[in-house]
Design a protein that fits this description.
125 residues, alpha/beta, TIM Barrel, 4-stranded parallel sheet, 14% strand, globular
Length: 125
């Protein structure tokens, strides 16, 4: 069994404290030393926890593959195209929710999701 670790809550603590710590990149290094094979981060449109700078720092210095959870929004798609994470998971997102409350409505958003998936696959690393 392989372990991937979601480090969003590390950034949540940092944001709540209004400080530079704890550091998601440092958490990723700890995960690697503990035997994890990947990390997951969710770059939300409201930047509630993980920030753009975290994504770029992780891309440049994280020893593990990154799984980027993201909404199907143009702004986040552009960041994903630039960062080129190892994996992407498209997730639904509502600003008022504390955590993801339901699944992605693929049927209802099929054409938009199909365009996004094709764009992301066409720019892979």
């Amino acid at each position: 069994m392989l372990l991937g670790v979601n480090i969003d809550h590390v950034a949540t603590l940092r944001q709540a404290r209004g400080t530079f710590y704890p550091d998601p990149l440092e958490a990723a290094h700890l995960c690697a030393r503990a035997g994890a094979v990947g990390i997951t981060v969710h770059l939300r449109e409201d930047r509630r926890h993980i920030q753009d700078s975290d994504i770029y720092r992780l891309r440049d210095a994280c020893p593990l593959p990154i799984n980027l959870e993201m909404a199907n929004s143009e702004e986040i798609i552009q960041i994903a195209l630039d960062v080129k994470p190892a994996e992407i998971c498209l997730v639904p997102e509502k600003r008022a929710e504390l955590t993801t409350e339901g699944g992605l409505d693929v049927i209802g958003h099929f054409q938009s999701l199909e365009r996004t998936v094709n764009r992301l696959q066409g720019h892979g690393s």
